[in-house]
Amino acid sequence: MKVKRLFNYKNTQFDEELKAVPHNFAVKHDSEKAVTELTIYGVIGEAWWNENWTSAVDIDNALKEAGTNNIEIRLNSPGGSAFDGIAIYNRLMSYKKETGAKIKVYIDGWACSAASVIAMAADELVMGLGSMFMIHEASSGVWGAKGDFRSEADLLEELEEGIIDIYMTKANVDRAEIRKKVDAETWFSASKAVEIGFATSSASSVEGNKADEIANLRAQNANLANELKQLKNQTKEEPTPDQVQPTNKRKGFLF
After folding, report:
1. Where would a tag sit more exposed on the chain, N or C end, judged by fewer CB atoms within 10 A?
2. Is 127 helix (H, G, I), strand (E, B) or coil?
3. Strand partners, 44
4. How many domains does the chain have?
């Protein structure tokens, strides 16, 4: 089985832009204002796999130094490891419960996949002008017999149910609707993210309306491209799998 590209999205029109998001993890503690600012740009994932990824360990260490500060997160990420995204979400939620602090997240560009899960920890989630929010199915790579693939599919379904549980803490639609949007891979502009309940507000400026119109068009184009691709795949023959070296190790859960 061929392990697909890092961002296994049905819609590929933003691939180059997403890959171009630079890694930047930074922590700034302001004791006077009682605020800790975290910058999370780039891929979410285990540091042992790639030192330029932001891991749950990075966030844990930053929160241990934050004391009881409120947290502000600048987020711009194409996603990455499902389990690191979930761990970061839960670590942030635990921090709020332990300290009574508030968490505010600014989506500066992208909050896709695992990054969208992290964003759900926010008490206030502000979508920047032209920013995008995306939810989709989890994926993984595994080599083995048919039983291995069935087992992997079952595991992915359970993983997705847990992720949908997280989305449902914010969504103002029913679970079946969120499941449909996850299965279809859905891209949200700032206004659409606010409308469904994922975001609390979008940044405002003199050019706000124009920027939001552009973001809405980008989201509509992305979702339309997904639908067209699915229609084409219904009549397309299955490709012959690329040959790879056998291994019984999973390649990680990408989300």
Report:
1. N
2. strand
3. 54, 80
4. 1
